[in-house]
Amino acid sequence: MSVLVVGMSHRSAPVEVLERAAVGADEIPKLLDEMLHGSHVTEVMMLSTCNRIEVYAVVDAFHGGLADVSSVLGRHAALPLAELTEHLYVHYAGSAVQHLFAVAAGLDSMVIGEAQILGQLRAAYAAADTAGTVGRTLHELSQQALRVGKRVHTRTGIDAAGASVVSEALTVAAHTLGDLRGVRAVVVGAGAMGALTAAHLRRAGAQEIVVLNRSAERAQRLVENTRRTGISARHAPLEALADELTTADL
Question: Fewest beta carbons less than 10 Å away: which of 9, 23, 30, 70?
Fold first, then answer.
């Protein structure tokens, strides 16, 4: 048995492919179950973020495990396997472990050193544990990766390179707009990155935040959390994006 990593990220795939392959939190248990029912997979977990989809699996054969995982990802993305594999990267055995440690340390992130990946790894492990698809190998590997990532962030100062994609984006915005206090901002999406964006905007002193999301319920939760901090906020459907942008500063 060896560990296999099959994934795609901002480094290997264009945005349109990443969007098709994206896996929502509610979809992960089903895909994990499908992979676990493959002939060569005995444990599996999935790390899904805004710019990364990675499957960590314990397999009894490299080619068989790769086929089991890739076929599920291809069906989910509605992409022919040949097209999907153009954008996949694969790591096996020691290389798979090294890759996971690099991911946990923030070395493979779009913004080097971002710390959000540790929380995302914890969530990936928790989801797989709840789904009953992790065993001793992935449990020990995940816990060690979290320890490695935390140690790197604590002892190297890598975080100084950039806290997150959001903070870097707002730094760029501030260079153009100047002080962000009093801006009217539109946030597209109410997931983890949307919530992080709203938090940064609150700290920057935004006057109003408009949240656009497919799910009105999820958008409203973010709006209510924002209002509790004293910032004006409301939600709108994604269809209103063009109209909202015409009166937005950011």
Answer: 30
* Nearest Cα residue to 53 out of 40, 79, 168: 79
Note if 170 is an active site residue. no
What distance in Å separates the CA atoms of residue 57 and residue 36, rounded to the nearest whole number? Answer: 9
DSSP category for residue 93: T
| Spatial distance between the Cα atoms of 138 and 226, rounded to a whole number of angstroms | 37
DSSP-derived letter for residue 185 is: E
Q: How far is the C-alpha of 119 from the C-alpha of 163, rounded, in Å?
A: 13
- Tokens representing residue 75 in the block: 């069906």
Amino acid at position 137, single letter: T
* For the chain, percent of residues with pLDDT exceeding 70: 98
Cα–Cα distance for residue pair 203/53, rounded to 1 Å: 30
Half-sphere exposure of residue 105: CA atoms within 13 angstroms, side-chain side: 16
**pLDDT at residue 53, as a whole number:** 94
Report pTM.
0.72
Of residues 10, 17, 22, 50, which has the active-site annotation? 50
- Using 70 as the pLDDT threshold, list the residues of the chain that sit under it: 159-164
